[in-house]
Amino acid sequence: MAATSISPVEFAARKFDYIVIGGGTAGLAIAARLSEDPNITVGVLEAGPAALEEDTINAPSPVLKTLGTNYDWQFETVPQPGLGGRTLAWPRGKVLGGTSALNLMTWNRGNKEDYDAWEGLGNKGWGWNDMLPFFKKSERIHVPSEEAQAAYQLHFDPQAVGTDGPIHASYAKEYSKMHRLCYDTLINLGIPENRAHHSGSNVGVWTNLNSVNPDDNTRSYASLAYYVPNSSRKNLLILAEALVQEVIISQENGEWTATGVHFMHRGNPYTVSASREVVISAGSVQSPQLLELSGVGNPHILEDAGIEVKVANPNVGENLQDHLLSISVFEVDPSLEKPKLEPPGTPYCYLPISTATSEGGFEKIASKVRTLERHPEEKTKILQSRFDPSTRLGQFEYIFDLTNWSSDFQPEPDTGKKYASILQILQYPFSRGSIHIRKRSELERSEGRRLTIAEKPIINPGYYSGPGGEIDLDAMTQCIRFADKICQSAPLSEVVRSRVVPPSSIESDAELRGWAVKNTSTDWHPVGTCGMGGSGGIHSGVVDDRLRVYGVKRLRVVDASIMPLQISAHLQATVYAIAEKGAHLIREDNAGRWS
After folding, report:
1. Cβ(586)–Cβ(556) under 8 Å?
2. How far is it, in rounded angstroms, from Cα 595 to Cα 591?
3. pTM above the 0.90 mark?
4. Phi-psi label, residue 414: left if phi above 0, alpha if psi -120 to 50, beta otherwise
5. 490/496 Cα distance (integer angstroms)
6. CATH superfamily of domain region 124-220+321-433+460-522
7. 468 with 430: CB under 8 angstroms?
8. What pLDDT sits at residue 180?
9. Pairing of strands 311-312, 296-297
């Protein structure tokens, strides 16, 4: 298998047209697409190792084995008052392929309205119709047999999916009895079956796909999909274990301009230049961190960190949005068998909040939503519109699996008992947070020491905090309660014995709220920290709708951080589409400039 082999000295000496910071989900896709032009040279700097032959990454089972290892940045939030003072682990990939090498491989898209909302904020070209070609360009859907489609509800719209892109997406090869029971129960509850969940609405129940190559049952991720097939290109060079310290932003003709990058490799400093552009694809945590270290951000934060202010923009690192997760666990009939092959095929279900709550419960939350006041007003209006009782968007996501997913519940061994989990995920959070570099200590100031990217930023998602957080907590409480209704309905109720998480003694909404505070976690889907500004420009965001950083020429951000509003979906398919579109914009903007 191909591997990176260039030395840091050779890398720094090369004349690059583009430098991409971050060889992750978005970065490798961008580099692969830009290097399709043999007349340009692209360099990629990745902080982690290449690990192209690492079994714990390439094999789709067991999942989450790489978390907490040297392939993980091992970020952590600050204590969250809304979660009872708890801190949460925030895994992010520190390896070639980024978080696509660590994730649970879910492959789906948001709703048409999610992307149209981005465009509605003034970000031209980011609506559903403009994004669809880039979704299709990134993916290779493996069509199951007609027999499998009928037996396991493997439905999709063939006109809406891609069949020759780099990322393999496939249905599982085995399904348990639990899959059929959950699917039928949701249908019996009046939840519609969605036979075209990639076509602009994921609302309803359907069977999930994973980013897995079914030919050899391996994880399909950015390294194997975008880099390895193109690694022989002489104009595409990747340096692993290279820690970028800052983007070099200098004055050229009276304008701040990105001209290159300072980076470290095994303790030694290097500088590399980019004649056309620097592209930051370091993710929702480190893209804002890197901008701040380079002098772009809130002046107060930069001054406290000892960083020269080049472009004042208080939006850098703000607007943080994440999906909130809780897990219910039920004891089930011990005769149920889990498929031997991983990842399993399971039903996914996205529901409007009005479907999963009583009329009174819905109105209680909706009344708080209607009175919420927040800047910017345009984003608040979009969030409020999603709480209209006629809106058919997936406010809640439910995932079903014949496994105990709760880290807090440890079953007694050798009892023969079996457990199933329902993962409940809030899709459109009102909670808002931030990610920023920390202050320099007095000692660091006296010694003239500079903060670096290796010093982890302050991650404060603001879970369940403020008026918006109150709405999220109310919604999660109703989300948990509806999971009970699912398990008490036929035919699933025939195999469910009791609820063990939350404990069966917890019944009232007040008790469920208290439990949610102590047990809510993250689904690891942070977005928004370098959001597109739309019609508000630099007053509302960090990048424009062509992903150019406000106030700095030849500098872009292309990753999940540019999303101005959260979507109702797992992120990876959207991140690949953002990267595909970002590469298209870069090539379009630079066409003919250096001919």
Report:
1. yes
2. 8
3. yes
4. left
5. 10
6. Glucose Oxidase, domain 3 (3.30.560.10)
7. yes
8. 95
9. parallel
Question: 493 near 487, Cβ under 8 Å?
Answer: yes
Classify domain 1-123+237-320+434-458+526-580 at the CATH class level. Answer: alpha beta
Q: Which amino acid is at 284?
A: S
Tell me how far CA of residue 45 lies from CA of 97, 238, 417, 468, in angstroms: 12, 6, 49, 38
Tokens, residue 474: 């109310």
Q: Which of these, 527, 564, 536, lies nearest to 114 by C-alpha position? A: 564
> In the chain, where does the domain assigned CATH 3.30.560.10 lie?
124-220+321-433+460-522
Summary count for the chain: helices (H), strands (E)? 16, 24
d(CA 402, CA 394): 23
Q: What residue ranges of the chain are covered by domains with CATH 3.50.50.60?
A: 1-123+237-320+434-458+526-580
What one-character DSSP code corresponds to residue 82? G
Structure tokens given for 536 = 């508000």
DSSP string, 177-193: HHHHHHHHHHHHTTPPB
Length in residues, the chain: 595
Closest residue by Cα to residue 29 from 165, 169, 210, 213: 165
Burial class (CB in 10 A: 0-12, 13-18, 19+), 55: exposed
- Tell me the Cα Rg of the chain: 24
pLDDT tens series, the chain, 595 aa: 555 679 999 999 999 999 999 999 999 999 999 999 999 999 999 999 999 999 999 998 777 889 999 999 999 999 999 999 999 999 999 999 999 999 999 999 999 999 999 999 999 999 999 999 999 999 999 999 999 999 999 999 999 999 999 999 999 999 999 999 999 999 999 999 999 999 999 999 999 999 999 999 999 999 999 999 999 999 999 999 999 999 999 999 999 999 999 999 999 999 999 999 999 999 999 999 999 999 999 999 999 999 999 999 999 999 999 999 999 999 999 999 988 877 888 999 999 999 999 889 899 999 999 999 888 889 999 999 998 888 899 999 999 999 999 998 998 888 889 999 999 999 999 999 999 999 998 888 888 888 999 999 999 999 999 999 999 999 999 999 999 999 999 999 999 999 999 999 999 999 999 999 999 999 999 999 999 999 999 999 999 999 999 999 999 999 999 999 999 999 999 999 999 999 999 999 998 665 4
Q: Is the peptide bond before 299 cis (omega within 30 degrees of 0)?
A: no
Please give the torsion angle defined by the CA atoms of residues 41, 42, 43 and 45, in that order, rounded to the nearest 10 degrees: 180
Contact of 21 with 28, CB cutoff 8 Å: no
